[in-house]
Structures are given as structure tokens and as C-alpha cells.
Design goal:
Distance between the termini: 52 Å
Strand order of the largest sheet: 3-2-1-4-6-5
Structural class: alpha+beta
CATH superfamily of the largest domain: HUPs
Number of strands: 19
Strand content: 15-25%
Shape: elongated
Length: 439
């Protein structure tokens, strides 16, 4: 016996009934109207979290100007509080994607801890997403299409209607006399998704009536396959990971030697998993950058540039750099006062710990030819000392140096590269922390 839409919805939301609040992303269209109506009805008979709706106004078309008033009327009739928000859409190659990004950024900002945002994507949307990504050459992660839930801001995004067809939603809406708005842009076949929805999918379902259900089922199989790939990546990462040599440098990094013992496919799988929180993942064509990085000469400093940063190979490790770590630094000659912190433009801050050495102190960067006098070793070229300490090449130009006149006293965060005994004073550098990979 087929379950009613209400019963299906309760099953899909069973894991989220202890959430502090539920918020419905309410566009005023058919799908979100049915979702809101179902939840408002269930709330009268079930013990559910507090329910509200949110309507996002993008301001991209004249027809949308009437939608907030429509959404207000619907919510008033259902006795559901409505929050209305305006967002600015940044221009880009894809207007659809830009509008989506703006919408979800606002949703993420809105959600409190463990609160749930409910969206109304359904089974037909899932099939459409699978086909769209297939045509773009996506891998298993992309072809898994939309997950039923994922983290969003401090809360969670949940899609409780992914097992429901659009026909079922439309039948429910008509049976309950619901009114909804139609987005004129949904008819514009210049948008790829609209073309698939209006031209391609009807032909497929005419020949194979169960095509949408089959594609949604394939997406579920691919989600399971991706979960297994993620488990393999986690196991491989645990097996090869070892602490970086500098505890004060919280940059994501991996040791190269054990990584390269894995097959090429497992290398890519591990890197996809590791990079996922840091940057949009590259398509297959851009993985040539990884091959170039691996095959570069031993004395080279190869770089693989990705959407939000870059990978560098240095001193036997793979390092992820982004944000301020990609910005060039200008030469500095700044006075450092005892017991005071000195901010370095784009490069964190430094301070002295302990009894400061006598005299006027300055902070500078390497300029070449720097020499440090070490007890028992005499005058030593700084470049050679940094090589001996295994300091990555990308870090050397950023390392603050403490000078007294023309005398180099210390390298930041390296007590062994200082004229002082560690128990007297230390020159400390707090590296930049305003980037996602460092926070």
C-alpha cells in the first residue's frame, strides 16, 4: 500500500524532529507550496519543531516583484511566520548558479545551531541533476546528485521530498485547492536545465516511462559508491598522514612519499577527499596539474593552481596555500618594542617572549646574503641554515627576521636560529589566520 505524502514526509524527517526549528525555503512555486502546506497540516497534529518560512527575493525579473505578497498571503492563511529577504546576485558566467549561491549564502547566515532548512526538490529534480551533470562529465561525487541532507552554516539543509515525483506534488496541490506562482524563467530554454526539463526528459519518459525513477535510483547507487570511495580515502589518509615538522604552521599538508606509493586512482581519490573542504574540485582535464607537480624535477618548486588556492611541493610535502599566503609581501623595516605586538601587513604579527635584548630592534624579511652568528658555529649563511632546518621554500620569504642595526639576531619561531639562549628570550611569529584553511 502506497504511503500518503504526509506519511512519506514524516518518515523522511524522522531524524530531524528534535531540531530547534524548521525553516521552509518558500519560493511560492508548486513544490515549496506543497511542502509548506504539508508541514503546516502536520504541525497541527504532530509534535514538530517550530515552523517558519523564508522567501528570498533576487530582483532579477519584473514578475518576481509580486511574489512576496503572494507568499505572505499563503503563510498568513497557514498561520506560518514568514521572513522575507532581499539578496544581491553577483554577475557571472551562469546567472542560475550566481542566484543559487546568493540564496544559499543567505540561508547559511540565517540558520542557528542545529536548525534545519527544508527545501522542496523532488525526484524529477534529482533525475534532472543527474543528467545535467552526466553531460558535463561529472564523476561519482557529481553523479550522486543531491544528497537528502548536508551541513549548511551552523545548521543543516534537508530535502525531504526526493522520493516524491512532481506529478504527485501537482496532484496533491490540485486536490487541496492550492495556489502557486509560475516562474516565467522556467520556460526560457536558453538555460540548460530548462532545456533538459522541457525537451529532453519528456522524450526519455515517452520511450521509457520509468526513466526519472530509474535515474534517481542510479543517483542513489552512486551516492553509496561515493560513500565507499570516501571511506577508502579516509583510510588511506590515516595510513599516510604524519605531522608536519612545524607545529606553529597550521597549513594543510601531506607527506609526498607515502602518497605516491598509492595507485594513481587512489591518489586522486585521496586528494579529492582532502581538497573538498578547501576548494571546488577540478574536472578531469585539470588533473594534469597534479601529474606535472609530481613529475617536476627534484630541485623544482612546482605549483598546481586550483579555484581557491594552490598546491605546492616543498621539502617532501604537499602544501595547500590560499588567501594571504598567495599575496606578495613588500620589504619591511619596522621597529619592534619590548612587550608589544607588531602587526606585519598581510603576514600576521610578531612579539618577543622573555627579556628583550638591548638596543633598537627592527623586523625585516630576507633580502639575500643574510648572515647569522651562532654560538659554537660562527657566522653562517642564513640560506644554508634554512636548508638545514627544512624550511619550505615558499615560507622563507615570509619568515620575519629580528635585527639590531645590521646584526641578525633571530629567525622567527626558530629558537635554534637565534643568538639568544631559549630561556632568555624568543622571537615569536603568529602566522596569518584569516583564511579558511588556517582558521
Amino acid at each position: 500500500m502506497l504511503m500518503s505524502l504526509e506519511a512519506q514526509l514524516l518518515v523522511a524527517l524522522s531524524a530531524w524532529r528534535s531540531a530547534p526549528a524548521w525553516t521552509v525555503a518558500f519560493s511560492g512555486g508548486l513544490d515549496s507550496t506543497v511542502l509548506l502546506h504539508l508541514l503546516a497540516g502536520l504541525a497541527q497534529r504532530e509534535q514538530l519543531p517550530p515552523l517558519r518560512a523564508i522567501h528570498i527575493q533576487h530582483g532579477l525579473q519584473a514578475a518576481a516583484l509580486a511574489w512576496p505578497a503572494h507568499c505572505q498571503r499563503v503563510c498568513a492563511a497557514l498561520k506560518v511566520p514568514l521572513l522575507q529577504r532581499d539578496v544581491q546576485v553577483q554577475p557571472g558566467a551562469s546567472l542560475e548558479q550566481a542566484a543559487r549561491d546568493a540564496r544559499y549564502a543567505d540561508f547559511a547566515e540565517l540558520l542557528g545551531a542545529d536548525e534545519v532548512l527544508l527545501t522542496a526538490q523532488h525526484r524529477d529534480d534529482q533525475a534532472e541533476t543527474l543528467l545535467f551533470r552526466l553531460l558535463r562529465g561529472a564523476g561519482a561525487r557529481g553523479l550522486a546528485a543531491m544528497p537528502s541532507s548536508r551541513p549548511l552554516g551552523a545548521g543543516h539543509l534537508v530535502r525531504p521530498l526526493l522520493a516524491v515525483s512532481r506529478v504527485e506534488l501537482e496532484n496533491y496541490a490540485r486536490a487541496n485547492g492550492l495556489d502557486w506562482v509560475e516562474d516565467p524563467s522556467n520556460c526560457d530554454e536558453r538555460f540548460s536545465r530548462n532545456y533538459l526539463r522541457r525537451q529532453v526528459l519528456p522524450l526519455l519518459t515517452q520511450r521509457w516511462p520509468q526513466a526519472l525513477a530509474s535515474m534517481a535510483r542510479s543517483a542513489a547507487h552512486l551516492r553509496e559508491a561515493q560513500a565507499l570511495l570516501d571511506e577508502l580515502a579516509q583510510a588511506d589518509l590515516a595510513a599516510i598522514d604524519e605531522a608536519a615538522p612545524f607545529a606553529w604552521l597550521p597549513l594543510p599538508s601531506l607527506p609526498m612519499a607515502p602518497l605516491l606509493t598509492l595507485s594513481a586512482a587512489r591518489q586522486r581519490n585521496l586528494l579529492r577527499h582532502w581538497l573538498a573542504p578547501l576548494t571546488p574540485l577540478p574536472d578531469s582535464d585539470h588533473w594534469a596539474g597534479w601529474t606535472s607537480l609530481v613529475n617536476a624535477a627534484v630541485d623544482a618548486a612546482p605549483v598546481w593552481r586550483l579555484a581557491r588556492g594552490e598546491l605546492r611541493r616543498a621539502d617532501g610535502r604537499l602544501w595547500w596555500l590560499s588567501g594571504p599566503w598567495l599575496q606578495s609581501l613588500q620589504p619591511i623595516d619596522l621597529p619592534l618594542m619590548a612587550a608589544k605586538q607588531l602587526s606585519l601587513p598581510g603576514n600576521g604579527h610578531v612579539y618577543l617572549l622573555g627579556q628583550a635584548p638591548e638596543g633598537a630592534l627592527q623586523v625585516r624579511y630576507r633580502e639575500g646574503g643574510d648572515v647569522l652568528r651562532l654560538a659554537g658555529r660562527g657566522r653562517r649563511d642564513l640560506k644554508r641554515l634554512l636548508n638545514e632546518a627544512g624550511v619550505p621554500a615558499f615560507l622563507r620569504c615570509r619568515l620575519p627576521l629580528l635585527y639590531r642595526g645590521e646584526e641578525l639576531l633571530a629567525v622567527a619561531n626558530a629558537p635554534q636560529l637565534s643568538v639568544a639562549e631559549p630561556e632568555t628570550w624568543q622571537f615569536v611569529w603568529q602566522v596569518p589566520t584569516n583564511d579558511q584553511c588556517l582558521s
